[in-house]
Design goal:
alpha+beta; Jelly Rolls; Arc Repressor Mutant, subunit A; five-stranded antiparallel β-sheet; four-stranded antiparallel β-sheet; 15% strand
């Protein structure tokens, strides 16, 4: 399967329109078990519901890390920086999700939007909500999403990323007529569950100047992704955001729970996977192309990250 590619601005905003003006919601399925299909760090001004249909997923959201098991899900708030990756070596990892504008639920100036939608979307301490299925209300939200996915899979239009795998959902899609109304009803009632239980939601710690920290991360990650094939140092990464090396390390630990250099090495390995799959370059040439001065070191890191050697990955 072709590697998943997400068009992004320099600040990591996703450059995709989800749905259409008359029906601003789009259904997707991420196949995270396929090499190269992890969803990179990005953000969008839309709202998103994401569920693990099979497998296990590791999610970076805001400055937190969430592990979701099969049947669990997450709500991602507008402008939340996030990424998804497979977190299991066994079986497929399919994750249906819907992305929609807040106005899908209600018009901007409506009582519904002002009284029920905005209190959640404008809460900076609520970048995401985990739907773990351990409370009645989260089970109810997951059941509603199951019905939404079934309808959108059957009757929704294909999105920007093309055809998606067909999944089995517990709920039936029902008749095509009025499915848009039923989708809106289910999303609205799911939102009502979130609002009614807002006092039970775990809030992220208030971070002073969090928008500044996010901008710094965007600049440093952008620098790494643009210059990974070059001789990149911690100092050059820090220079991209005009901060010290210690502050760069603190930002990465806060948001991604890793160091800038480890993120760089992981990204180099991910880029090498595409070259191994799509080109006839030797392993040594791939290593040099992705910024490794030693093919032996490249092979060691590749195996640690993927569980196989570059040659084994290519032959598979």
């Amino acid at each position: 399967m072709e590697e998943f590619h997400m068009p992004l601005k320099e600040n990591f905003q996703e450059l995709v329109q989800h749905g259409k003006a008359g029906f601003p919601i789009q259904y997707y399925v991420n196949s995270l078990h396929i090499a190269g299909n992890n969803v990179p760090m990005h953000w969008h001004p839309n709202l998103e519901f994401f569920v693990v249909h099979s497998g296990r997923v590791k999610i970076h959201a805001g400055n937190g890390i969430v592990i979701l098991e099969q049947g669990q899900g997450i709500f991602l708030n507008a402008n939340c920086l996030h990424s998804y990756e497979n977190n299991s070596d066994e079986g497929p990892c399919y994750c249906p999700n819907v992305v929609f504008q807040p106005e899908f639920i209600a018009p901007v100036n409506s009582v519904i939007n002002i009284q029920y939608v905005m209190p959640l979307t404008l809460n900076s301490q609520l970048p995401y909500i985990v739907l773990d299925g351990k409370t009645k209300w989260s089970v109810s939200v997951l059941e509603r999403l199951d019905r939404v996915f079934a309808m959108m899979q059957e009757y929704g239009e294909v999105g920007r990323y093309g055809e998606v795998p067909r999944l089995e959902f517990r709920a039936g899609a029902g008749e095509r007529e009025c499915f848009e109304i039923r989708v809106l009803c289910e999303i609205s009632l799911a939102w009502a569950e979130l609002y009614q239980h807002r006092d039970e939601l775990e809030l992220a710690p208030a971070v002073k100047n969090e928008h500044v920290l996010q901008i710094r991360m965007q600049k440093m990650i952008g620098f790494i992704q643009a210059h990974y094939a070059e001789d990149v140092s911690l100092q050059s990464i820090a220079n991209a955001a005009s901060i010290s090396r210690s502050e760069a390390s603190r930002c990465f630990q806060s948001y991604l729970h890793t160091s800038p250099v480890n993120y760089l090495l992981k990204y180099r390995v991910e880029r090498s996977m595409q070259l191994l799959r799509d080109s006839n370059m030797t392993v040594e040439a791939v290593a040099l192309e992705c910024g490794f001065s030693s093919s032996a070191y490249f092979c060691k890191l590749f195996r640690a990250q993927t569980g196989m050697t570059p040659k084994q990955y290519r032959s598979s």
